[in-house]
Amino acid sequence: xxxxxxxxxxxxxxxxxxxxxxxxxxxxxxxxxxxxxxxxxxxxxxxxxxxxxxxxxxxxxxxxxxxxxxxxxxxxxxxx
Length: 80
Known about the structure:
3-stranded mixed beta sheet, 1 helix, alpha+beta, rod-shaped
């Protein structure tokens, strides 16, 4: 650049906050698809050790109703 050129400074407000989809009651595959499409990483857990019905019953952080989390952050889904 040259002296006297205009410089734009962008102040970061931290990570971009994006809406967390509510994936409760969705199938595992659909839940992972929805969360990844929204911009999250997904960790699938099977804490019940019950015969798998392939259905999400819990997620952390919670989704829906305008709930947000940092883009690229981890959403844990519990599947049974």
